[in-house]
Amino acid sequence: MGLFDRIQSRDSNPSVAKKNNVSETPNILDTSEKAKKPEIKVGFSVNERVKQPVEEFERDSTSSILDKYFVKVDDIDFDVIIEKENGVTLYKIPEITLMNTALAKFSDLDIKTIKAELSESTLQKLGQIQGYLKNYSEKNNLHLRDIEILHLSHYFYLIIGKLGLLEIPLNDSKLEEVMVNGVESPSFVFHRKYQMCETNIRLDRHEGTRVVESIAYLAGRTIDSRTPMLDAFLPDGSRVNATMSDVTLGGNTITIRKFSEDPLTIIDLINFGTFDLELAAFLWQAVEGYFGAKPANTLIVGGTGSGKTTTLNVVSMFSMYTDRLVTIEDTPELQVPLTHLIKMITRPGRPGIQGYEITMDDLIKNSLRMRPDRIFVGEVRGSEAHSLLVAMNTGHDGCSGTLHANSADEALIRLINPPMNVPKVMMSSVDFIINQQRIKRNKKTVRRILGVVEIGGSGENITKTELFKYDGISDSVVKTGICMWEEDVCQIAGITRDELMDDRINRKKVLKYMVNNNINDIRKVGDVIKQYQENPENILKNILE
């Protein structure tokens, strides 16, 4: 049974809903006399800015259009237009206007009847829905044109057993997040290129409730008046937070951080300006440990939405391809293209079931019995910090994790104080703290590495050396300090410092080659890194020919 087939099954079988702890609400599709008769709405409203069909957008708004492309939802292609209007970046789906025009020919009772009959039938394919709508139109003398039936079939296809109009942005690979702020409020999306955009999707109360409950069903969780907040992840790995109107005055809210099927790589971050070639080559060398001689332990710190997990995923690709990796997360976001990999996720507790919860701390302690070479922790928040540093102190070099903090100093303060309580004597096991933040440049939000700090010292004496620092004028990082790790790795690997620097220059050449040739697919980038680890002379010869 497919992902959304399960919603269809749940919606048409109340016993399934009860079994899955999904809250029940009055069935607005019930046409019996006993049913309540609330005001029936279409399920969305159209942003007043969207008043024209696609052709008129192209003719009248060319000067403000930033981008045009289509998003595929199953077999349906939806046009998307990104444009600037009165200083606001808009994410417009023109077909919503055409759907709205066609739906205006239906009465509320028509819409209610169609929803009920389609929900209770086996008509799930697009062609079947089109045939049903054509018959309904003829039987009720609605005189719908074929093009109107087409748009209506798209609409009902999305709202019967799926997540409604949100399916369109959720299937857009260019988006990072989809946000619903409440009833009749415009939804927003965060675009990889154009950042925060206002959409012409609005959910009414009934559709908002239906979508939230469908999300809870997919996540295998409960959301109702007793538990009005949901924090979970969907089967595809997307992270979702939802609230009911009990705690958000504007109505139900939804925030979905999409799981990327095409995750960013070091080449993407170089192109975005988050890294430059020098810093990228340094971290490649450090995380790898110069062909595994001395992998560095790192912590990536930053604020919410700063891209910490993305950077963690990127640097994890620098691991030696022969290493055994264990990733530990609340939600499965890390996508490491290595074969010797174990992915572990936490399990939230359930009321009345003692011992059901499995925490990150539990998983880290268990992973130490799996003979890992490296451990990567999605987000360090509590006692798991102590366990991670224990791993670093017991010979598991090359470990890494993310931490909410605004600087290396703040990260150290958080680590040695409750609830983390890491003893100062253990802090020297961390080699580098990478500080990544969201900043504003030219009225745009960008993600930048603001600094790399090396941690050293002995006993309770912690020393910090700033190796790289962000320079706002040049919008790049500059090297500011001498790295002790470089001396250690040279000693262990039996090489001179000049040889280490020559290797870094070679890595920069490989990275620049991938940038120049637009090699940013995660598998292809991973393959190039592996080839360099196996035979650097051979790959350098190939790229320089």
From TrEMBL:
Q: Which PANTHER family match?
A: TWITCHING MOTILITY PROTEIN PILT, TYPE II_IV SECRETION SYSTEM ATPASE
Tell me the segments the record calls region Disordered. Answer: 1-33
Q: Where is the Bacterial type II secretion system protein E domain?
A: 186-444
**Molecular function in Gene Ontology:** ATP hydrolysis activity
Which keywords appear in this protein's UniProt record, sorted alphabetically?
Cell projection, Cilium, Flagellum
What does the sequence similarity comment in the record state about its family? Belongs to the GSP E family.
* Source superkingdom: Archaea
Any Pfam family matching the protein: T2SSE
In Swiss-Prot or TrEMBL terms, this protein is called Flagellar protein FlaI
**Where is this chain compositionally biased, Polar residues type?**
10-30
Species of the source: Methanococcus maripaludis (Methanococcus deltae)
